[in-house]
Amino acid sequence: AVFMMLATAARRTGLAALVTVVSLAMASQAWAQECRVPSGNPRPDDPALVPTINYVLGNANADARALRDALTACNAVLTRPGQRTSLQAQMCVSEAQLRLAKLGEDPTGNYAAASCGFQIADTLAGRGRRQSEQARAQGLRVEALLGLASVSGRDQAERLIAEADRAHSAATQSSPDVHWRLFEIYRERTDVTRARREAEHLGDRGLRPALAWIGVARLDPAHAQESLERAYRAQGDSVAVNSDLGRVYFNRGEWDRAWDRLRFATGPGRTAEPGFENLQLDAFYYRSILESSGRGFGTLRDARDHADQAGVSQAALRQMCLVRLVLGGEDVYRAILDSNNRVIGSQPAESLNGYDRCNRMASTAEGQLLLGMFWLRRAQYMPAGRPDDRAQWRAAVARAVSAFSTSRAMQGADRTALLNWPAPPQSAVTLAEMVDYGEQYARYAESGCQGTTPSDTPNQASAVFRYYHVNSCRPL
Predict the structure, then answer these.
(1) pLDDT in tens, 348-376
(2) DSSP-assigned beta bridge partners for residue 32
(3) What is the 3-state secondary structure (H, E, C) of the chain?
(4) CA separation (Å) from 101 to 95, 107, 110, 160, 287?
(5) Which of 394, 403, 404, 407 has the alpha carbon at shortest distance from 446?
(6) Side-chain half-sphere exposure of 393, counting CA atoms within 13 A
(7) Pair 416, 365: CB distance under 8 Å
(8) Contact partners, residue 214, CB within 8 Å, separation at least 6
(9) Fewer Cβ atoms within 10 A, N terminus or C terminus of the chain?
(10) C-alpha span between 33 and 145 (Å, rounded)
């Protein structure tokens, strides 16, 4: 089957007698082509072919039928006596095959034939010192090799990509599509040097250069700001660029610059470029952090609303809960009043009482810690005047105790994991210390606030609880 496929590809070049197919690693059916070039300099162009070439290959919307007609006409020239060195016909055949492959018509055979044909055209153009045509043939051969790699098995694709890289290094001209495809390959392989090289080749203006420099920034965090500023110069109104640049400024503590970029990226009606949606979700997250930081950027309600738009990463889910703990009030509890303004129960609406947001990480030890803090914060707002009210209050505190106990059990023997929350002053506190303190405080509240307050012995955990206002106990 492999030989049949290659024989077909060879015939399509119009140079079946000049193409030798060499089998490599027969067990894996890997293969390569050596394209033999006819002797002699390229023949002068045939004016009769120019209308066909200009009409079909110059038309970006040419359909498969038109391309096949061009392929037949140009291939006929190559089969005539003395015409095997027609550079014009060889380029026409190869370009038609490349375009057909891109349209999905026998991509393996057409990509293979095109890569061989462009190699022949490269040599012919070099002999005739036709530099512009040689550069075009070199660049298109790289494109054909990459196309063939995309429809090949993994091992063969690796060899083809390596060959494309060698051809690309020798080429004097490649299309933006080639540079972009190579950039994507090198980014996937975390090859910083080559990815940066392709980003440089993509130019200084436009979306593709901008997105390429975002990729380089992710591969090389040490120089991320420099790369992202290049991305910003290339496409300053890109949502993806502004999102990632805002993240970098945020992590460097450049709050004003971060705020400007994040606010732009998350503005009304703005959507991220396809494939870069996660960067905008991150922008909503970092914007929420700034708005809840007390540095004068937005309000806590803004922080809550933007956290809700930050996706479902662990960091985003955590922020959804933490900002509600700070807000308190209706964001953790809302009472329902009867006609006489007496409390008859709690309103379970998720958008108002925050339980849904603080329960979204409940399958983790950290999520149970958040849930425990939520129940203690809610208890601060619950009425306790009537027996039924006191029963509901005690039930909320009991849920807090249960959540802290569950968190401890989930942690297992490892009690060294540090808390990774965005706000001070928790830089050195462990998750285990937070859970221990939370359970002590919940049991203190459960006792009716009798005895020694856990806050009487300050530590990092108590400072975190105070920061999120989970530090008020009221005797029943």
Answers:
(1) 444 446 888 898 899 999 999 999 999 99
(2) 22
(3) CHHHHHHHHHHHCCCHHHEEEEECCHHHCCEEEEECCCCCCCCCCCHHHHHHHHHHHCCCCCCHHHHHHHHHHHHHHHCCCCCCCCHHHHHHHHHHHHHHHHCCCCHHHHHHHHHHHHHHHHHHHHHCCCHHHHHHHHHHHHHHHHHHHHCCCHHHHHHHHHHHHHHHHHCCCCCHHHHHHHHHHHHHCCCHHHHHHHHHHCCCCCHHHHHHHHHHHHHCHHHHHHHHHHHHHHCCCCHHHHHHHHHHHHHCCCHHHHHHHHHHHCCCCCCCCCCCHHHHHHHHHHHHHHHCCCCCCCCHHHHHHHHCCCCCCHHHHHHHHHHHHHHCHHHCCCEEECCCCCEEEECCCHHHHCHHHHCCCCCCHHHHHHHHHHHHHHHCCCCCCCHHHHHHHHHHHHHHHHHHHHHHHHHCCCCCCECCCCCCCCCCCEHHHHHHHHHHHHHHHHCCCCCCCHHHCCCHHHHHHHHCCCCCCCCC
(4) 10, 4, 5, 16, 45
(5) 394
(6) 21
(7) no
(8) 227, 228, 231, 240, 241, 244, 276, 279
(9) N
(10) 11
End-to-end CA gap in the chain: 84
Please report, for residues 114, 182, 279, 358, the alpha-carbon distance to residue 363 in angstroms, rounded to integers and kept in the order given: 54, 41, 26, 11
Report the C-alpha gap between 356 and 61 in whole angstroms: 52
Burial class (CB in 10 A: 0-12, 13-18, 19+), 304: buried
pLDDT in tens, 151-175: 888 888 888 888 888 887 776 666 7
Crossing angle of the two packed helices 239-251 and 224-234, in degrees rounded to 10: 150
The CA distances from residue 140 to 122, 130, 333, in Å, are 10, 16, 65
Tell whether the torsion through CA atoms of 69, 70, 71 and 72 is positive or negative: positive
Q: How far apart are CA 178 and CA 190, in angstroms?
A: 18
pLDDT along the chain (476 residues), means of 10: 42 39 28 63 77 73 84 85 83 91 91 91 84 81 87 87 81 73 81 89 89 90 90 92 92 92 95 90 96 91 94 93 92 62 48 76 94 93 80 90 94 82 73 92 85 68 90 75
How many CB atoms neighbour CB 60 within 10 A?
Answer: 6
Instruction: State how far the Cα of 105 lies from the Cα of 99, in Å rounded to an integer.
Output: 9
The amino acid occupying position 254 is E
Query: What CA dihedral angle connects 153, 91, 21 and 65, to 10 degrees?
Result: 60
Contact 17, 103 (CB under 8 A): no
Distances (CA, A) of 279 to 7, 63, 181: 47, 37, 21
